[in-house]
Design brief:
The protein has 268 residues and is mainly alpha-helical. Helix content is 78%, strand content 0%.
Length: 268
């Protein structure tokens, strides 16, 4: 397969995962169930953590060592700075955007803006914010492979596949609650799928921005990693650990982490 075809495919795959998950609204009448939802949230957390480490942070450190000639003593510097900037970027978006997390009644973000928005819209925004760093991660990894040859293109594709796998339950987790709120199945599916549309959009933007500024590639790779870790710590893990307590989220994290690690190493 030509390189450009792999790039196009890698942009499409995560959105496909979200859309397929959202389509579960046509097949499941009673939702996912509390236990399954907890496991899937943990699974998504594990995939994103492994992707952040193996597909983004480690390549960022290796790139710093090889490209900048920093050696072992200072090769951590770009990765650390980029990681913290990624955390700060998502924190800023989280603070400025009114949104509502799963199983929550009180919205986050500007209260005045939230008062003019419906519950469904704020739930949609919460998942959409979550999907931004995933799209960025795919775009940055593809650019690192396509333009600078600092990653194998198949490794970037494995990242895309891993994100698509964890996007499947996420699509269901957004569409099914909307159905329970009284929205039609068609609209619930459309909202769930649309929440994943930001991934190819931000992926393409990150792809071309990275292509223009490849000299600071380690910062960009670790920036995407920080943004993804923010989502895990801020949203996925707290939602997975809501009462009643269960060990299923922890098992889900372990399974998701292992699968993403295997994908990255086996394919990359």
């Amino acid at each position: 397969m030509p390189d450009y075809a792999i790039v196009i495919l890698a942009f499409i795959i995560p959105f496909t995962g979200t859309s397929l998950g959202s389509a579960m609204v046509f097949f499941l009448r009673d939702g996912l169930g509390n236990k399954l939802q907890k496991f899937l949230l943990g699974f998504a957390s594990g995939v994103m953590l492994a992707a952040s480490v193996f597909s983004l942070l480690i390549p960022a450190i290796e790139e710093s060592h090889d490209y900048f000639g920093m050696g072992d003593s200072f090769s951590w510097f770009p990765a650390a700075i980029g990681f913290l900037l990624g955390i700060g970027f998502l924190l800023l978006i989280d603070t400025l955007t009114p949104h509502l997390h799963l199983n929550e009644d009180s919205p986050e973000g500007p209260k005045k803006a939230a008062s003019h928005m419906g519950k469904k819209s704020m739930m949609f925004l919460a998942v959409t914010i979550h999907n931004i760093p995933e799209g960025m991660a795919v775009g940055v990894a593809l650019a690192a492979a396509y333009f600078s040859n600092q990653m194998a293109l198949v490794s970037a594709l494995s990242l895309s596949i891993g994100i698509a796998i964890q996007n499947f339950p996420e699509g269901a987790i957004i569409s099914l609650p909307m159905r329970n709120e009284g929205m039609s199945r068609g609209k619930s599916f459309a909202y769930g799928a649309a929440s994943g549309a930001v991934e190819p959009l931000f992926g393409v933007v990150a792809f071309f921005i990275t292509a223009l500024i490849t000299p600071i590639l380690p910062y960009i790779l670790s920036f995407a990693a920080g943004a993804m870790v923010y989502v895990v710590v801020e949203e996925l893990i707290p939602e997975a650990q809501e009462k009643p307590h269960s060990n299923l989220p922890t098992i889900g994290v372990a399974v998701g982490f292992a699968i993403m690690m295997i994908l990255d190493i086996a394919l990359g």
